[in-house]
């Protein structure tokens, strides 16, 4: 009896027909292990079911396409099945759940779609389940609780939705749980605290909300935790700060701590509210009138927060603003407003409800702590994004007041790189905003999705940095009084179909009055906040400049530059080359002009990250430098060091905050 059958064909791969492969498989009917290495079958033939005695089947890394044949479910003696690193499409056949002896099921890095079989729990001997890097959708099956022997569960890099099932807490032998890069919402279930052998937990890049569970404090055996890029709020304990790096919590706007690099917990705000969808009340007025081009707060990444203070042009007192002001005043008396003004006429409320089928979840393209975003095609054919605010937030008088204030004030602000607010609805039973729709979504999504990131070549990335710089220059230097955004991050930059960048989410923005205090509660997203805010609490334009520097590096690196930022003052930084930090998913730039642009953008970013605000350049200076495309005397790209870029003239000059 064969114990291992290896089919290795390196030079004759293309000469082996599928029929020949089937014949070979037939001769292996008594094999217990079949490992196919470097053998391109084209697809998995159903005749493979003839290997009835097979215990282990490894077809990984063979560039296979097609589907998983349901006949594999007849291999009743199969203990391990590895089809990873191929191009297999279709769904995971339910027939695989008949393989009750299966201990290892590895289907990662394919093009599988559909849902995880609801009968997955039938694989009660399963120890390793790896379905990562596919296109799986829908919820995580609660039947997973029956896989009581699971040690490793990897479902990362899919499009899974819904909550983390409470039943996962019953997998007491689970050692690794990886759910990152999905669309999972809800809170982190307390049932995970029962998993006494769990050492690796990664739920980053999801839509999780609520607070960080207290049980994580006591799970001292955990070697790795990553909760980054969600909508978590509340205080991070000293234990967690000391045990894990800032990278584990970055990108959660609502987190605070007296330790580490977090904003201090000055107030006792409630944790982020989980997203909900509301039905329209019968008492809804009949029309919504649209507002012309204005700035927005968040579109897809959803992090509207706190009270908003922004600038108005002192020299423009238009009839348009007067009309809105009167409408707002009427609203203050009645408590209802379901009309928005524009010169283009009215947009029927019913059209919006019909376009989203009363905000049906099928039209939801994003959720967050304060609302949900829906994509809607209006009767005119125009596609817009609708931000529906959560009921709990819309009932707060202070929020309603600031919401009205934002719409009224921002109606004056227009810039090509700032997302437009077309209209809004303010009513005690329903609040939503109508935004310009951005086809590619957030910059964060594009950078952390391999397909999207590869499409963003070097010139596009430099142009994105340029677009962001121009928008911030407008806010800082062309508005009176100036606007400080306070939450510049990749989550709050949106891209259209042409990869043009637009600044969004002005929920925490603030205007700078020279005759009043600009001290405030720290706001922003962890990992992007200027370090001086932790102790000065003073809002300045240089806070935005620092955040811009982080985003610019993230665009070039393809990931958050936390490690690079941590090494800026270390001796190891001296030897870091530019080419070593650039996004490795793209080919290294060769064209001399492109290399110059990347080097200049990197130098500017480093200048913006100076620990002393007074030495950071102004955004106006940044825009001037980018537009001028000043040539730097450079060596070949593989010889350019970050230290050399940091010593560029701009880093030394800085600029005033005016």
Automatic annotation (TrEMBL):
<feature type="transmembrane region" description="Helical">
    <location>
        <begin position="287"/>
        <end position="312"/>
    </location>
</feature>
<feature type="domain" description="Protein kinase">
    <location>
        <begin position="359"/>
        <end position="641"/>
    </location>
</feature>
<keyword id="KW-0472">Membrane</keyword>
<dbReference type="GO" id="GO:0005524">
    <property type="term" value="F:ATP binding"/>
</dbReference>
<protein>
    <recommendedName>
        <fullName>non-specific serine/threonine protein kinase</fullName>
        <ecNumber>2.7.11.1</ecNumber>
    </recommendedName>
</protein>
<keyword id="KW-1133">Transmembrane helix</keyword>
<keyword id="KW-0418">Kinase</keyword>
<dbReference type="InterPro" id="IPR051420">
    <property type="entry name" value="Ser_Thr_Kinases_DiverseReg"/>
</dbReference>
<dbReference type="InterPro" id="IPR000719">
    <property type="entry name" value="Prot_kinase_dom"/>
</dbReference>
<keyword id="KW-0677">Repeat</keyword>
<dbReference type="Pfam" id="PF13855">
    <property type="entry name" value="LRR_8"/>
</dbReference>
<dbReference type="InterPro" id="IPR003591">
    <property type="entry name" value="Leu-rich_rpt_typical-subtyp"/>
</dbReference>
<keyword id="KW-0597">Phosphoprotein</keyword>
<dbReference type="InterPro" id="IPR032675">
    <property type="entry name" value="LRR_dom_sf"/>
</dbReference>
<keyword id="KW-0808">Transferase</keyword>
<keyword id="KW-0325">Glycoprotein</keyword>
<keyword id="KW-0675">Receptor</keyword>
<comment type="similarity">
    <text>Belongs to the RLP family.</text>
</comment>
<feature type="binding site">
    <location>
        <position position="387"/>
    </location>
    <ligand>
        <name>ATP</name>
    </ligand>
</feature>
<feature type="transmembrane region" description="Helical">
    <location>
        <begin position="20"/>
        <end position="44"/>
    </location>
</feature>
<keyword id="KW-0723">Serine/threonine-protein kinase</keyword>
<keyword id="KW-0433">Leucine-rich repeat</keyword>
<dbReference type="GO" id="GO:0004674">
    <property type="term" value="F:protein serine/threonine kinase activity"/>
</dbReference>
<dbReference type="InterPro" id="IPR001611">
    <property type="entry name" value="Leu-rich_rpt"/>
</dbReference>
<dbReference type="Pfam" id="PF00560">
    <property type="entry name" value="LRR_1"/>
</dbReference>
<keyword id="KW-0732">Signal</keyword>
<dbReference type="InterPro" id="IPR011009">
    <property type="entry name" value="Kinase-like_dom_sf"/>
</dbReference>
<dbReference type="InterPro" id="IPR017441">
    <property type="entry name" value="Protein_kinase_ATP_BS"/>
</dbReference>
<keyword id="KW-0067">ATP-binding</keyword>
<dbReference type="GO" id="GO:0016020">
    <property type="term" value="C:membrane"/>
</dbReference>
<dbReference type="InterPro" id="IPR008266">
    <property type="entry name" value="Tyr_kinase_AS"/>
</dbReference>
<dbReference type="Pfam" id="PF00069">
    <property type="entry name" value="Pkinase"/>
</dbReference>
<keyword id="KW-0547">Nucleotide-binding</keyword>
<keyword id="KW-0812">Transmembrane</keyword>
